[in-house]
Amino acid sequence: MPPAKKSAVVTQDIKRPPKSLIKRLEGIGAATAAGELNRMGIKNVFIQGPTTWTPGRSIVGPALTLQFMPKRGDIYPEGEYVDPERQLHRHVLYHTQPGDIVVVDARAEMSSGVFGEMMLTYFKGKGGIGAVIDGCIRDWPHAKEIDLGYWLRGVTPNFHVQTTLMPFAVNGPIACGNVLVMPGDIIIADDDGAVVVPAHLASDLATKGHEHAEWEVFAKLRLSEGGDLRKYYPPNDAASKEYEAWRKAQSAGKKGPAKKK
Fold first, then answer.
1. Which domain holds residue 163?
2. Reduced 3-state DSSP string for 21-51
3. CA–CA distance, 210 with 173 (Å, rounded to integer)
4. How far is CA 220 from the centre of its chain?
5. Dihedrals φ, ψ of 223, to 5°?
């Protein structure tokens, strides 16, 4: 009797938000996003542990998710290249579309590099823009030359299943840095860290975030001129009225002088 054929691995894609919504979230920043989401009732959105390895980089995009679990010999084969199509860390990258961010729960493990140079090169070639990993990558001397944003716990020379981990699930809910990340949630990441934006709250956040950012421009201006901290941060009634007048003046200035009839 011939050996039974191995069943193909099938993983699901994510639902992505409109590109216009991603554009609206750009420039808000992780700190403003975390603060506004807190005011919206979502308290725990900061992915704790991974920090930026690409200072100055700021990215916004939907989350592809990958979960690692403790390795067990009867479930996962030994070796870096044994039965590659069973390796789910490959499958999450197969779903990459331009603007995607891969988010990985690697259990804060410091001895496994969940992706290396070749996998990250493929991810970039498919249009990926960044990786948020509660764990490590490998091949850092080469990976850092790939034009991606990285938020990591660290780096290691070890490959993904060399020690205690195995990739387990693709594009399902994960706990990354003690934060729930749903596939298709939006990630805002910069030098402050990575923040998870629930997809259904993203439009409200975009509106509130830009309003907050505009107010901060005004407050910073007044404080830099020697304004009273007690008046401008947070704004009292007098500062709020002054801000509204300033905002109207800014808006009029953007429109330019009125045309003569």
1. 19-200
2. HHHHHCCCCHHHHHHHHHHCCCCCCECCCCE
3. 29
4. 27
5. -65, -35
**Is the same domain home to 45 and 150?**
yes
CB–CB of 29/58 below 8 Å?
Answer: yes
92, 171 Cβ separation under 8 angstroms: yes
**pTM here?**
0.86
Instruction: State the Cα angle at 255 between 249 and 256, rounded to 5°.
Output: 90
The per-residue pLDDT for range 146-164, each reduced to its tens digit, is 999 999 999 999 998 889 9
Tokens of 125: 């070639």
Q: Are residues 80 and 151 in the same domain?
A: yes
Q: Dmax over Cα atoms in the chain, in whole Å?
A: 92
Strand boundaries in the chain, DSSP class E: 51-52, 59-70, 101-105, 130-134, 136-137, 149-152, 154-155, 165-170, 174-176, 179-181, 186-190, 193-197
Tokens representing residue 156 in the block: 């290691």
Look up tokens 């993983």; give the residue. 11
